[in-house]
Specification:
Elements lengths: L2 H31 L10 H22 L3 H29 L5 E2 L6 E2 L8 H7 L1 H13 L9 E2 L2 E2 L2 H6 L4 H6 L9 E4 L2 E3 L9 H4 L12 H49 L4 H5 L3 H5 L1
Helix pairs in contact: 1-2, 1-9, 2-3, 3-9, 4-9
Bound molecules: 2-acetamido-2-deoxy-beta-D-glucopyranose (NAG).
The site of 2-acetamido-2-deoxy-beta-D-glucopyranose has 8 residues, from loops.
């Protein structure tokens, strides 16, 4: 086996390790999709890309080990499209989660989320009536709100303690009414509406029914978008690092493969010559 074959084998092995990272990201997203994010379609491209890289790098690895030129060609050819797909996916992920931000709340540990701060394809998708019905029932079933209760030495937390807490976007948007409504705290998911009449339309959507809470609020939809933005930001950073490494490995792999072929063609008594048709020498 030639040095460049060893190199191609090594590169394929490293690529294989990268595919595990991408798959891990996709699986992490889908585990969140079932708990916090409640959007179950966005992680699939990542899982498909990760699995493809895994299969193709194994093919390339076998190709390098057994000096199978076809497998190495396949590796280089298919990997080109996978890298293109990954670039496309990173751009897509950036585009869908680019717009929108949370707003800090005065004297509170948590931020709040406003639907009008978000825009774009993902927002249209989330606010879509049919789609929102699925997402909101997923949030309810995830029990993220009922798990929000805290006690200190057996005493339920007070409003002051609650105010200091850092809430995740779903907890902040879906489990409590917006601060602007001016409702009086009873517990984390129960607020006395009193005579307060906030101007926010979410104030009238709030319900102390533990099955309803703020699941129909705009703040809840914004919270879902904020939550996606957070988890996708993390995955995108990993993807960009993986992409850079993948391209470097690919370029080195291409160079090594070309080098291999040149030596094959130059070698007068190499084993390659016996299996290769004569015209390939003439092409030189
Ligand atoms: C708040 O109180 C209501 C009514 O007592 C209860 O159903 C709910 O579980 C409590 N919320 C939390 C987060 O403990």
């Amino acid at each position: 086996m030639r040095a460049s074959n060893h190199l191609i084998g090594l590169l394929n092995f490293l690529t294989f390790l990268l595919s595990i990272v991408i798959l891990g990201g996709g699986i992490w997203l889908s585990s969140r999709a079932n708990s916090t994010d409640c959007l179950k379609f966005l992680q699939w491209p990542l899982i498909v890309i990760g699995a493809s890289i895994m299969v193709v790098s194994l093919a390339g690895f076998a190709g390098a080990c057994y000096r199978n030129t076809f497998l190495m060609w396949l590796y280089l050819f298919v990997m080109f499209f996978i890298i293109a797909a990954l670039i496309g996916f990173i751009i897509f992920a950036y585009a869908v989660t680019d717009k929108g931000s949370k707003r800090p709340v005065m004297n509170k540990g948590y931020s709040e989320y406003y639907l009008q701060d978000y825009s774009g394809w993902l927002k249209d998708r989330v606010v879509d009536e049919k789609y929102w019905a699925k997402i909101s029932s997923c949030i309810r079933d995830s029990k993220v709100c009922s798990k929000m209760g805290r006690t200190y030495n057996g005493v339920p937390e007070t409003y002051d303690m609650f105010s200091m807490r850092k809430l995740n976007p779903i907890q902040s948007g879906c489990c409590k009414p917006p601060t602007d409504c001016g409702f009086v705290y009873v517990n984390e998911t129960q607020w006395d509406q009193g005579g307060a009449a906030g101007t926010d339309s979410d104030c009238s959507r709030w319900s102390n029914d533990q099955q309803l809470l703020c699941y129909q609020c705009d703040s809840c939809k914004a919270g879902v978008l904020g939550s996606l933005k957070k988890s996708w930001g993390k995955v995108s950073v990993i993807n960009i690092v993986v992409l850079i490494l993948l391209v470097i490995f690919y370029v080195i792999g291409c160079a090594a493969f070309r080098n291999n072929k040149r030596i094959d063609n130059d070698e007068p008594y190499g084993e390659a010559r016996m299996t290769k048709a004569q015209p390939s020498r003439i092409q030189l």
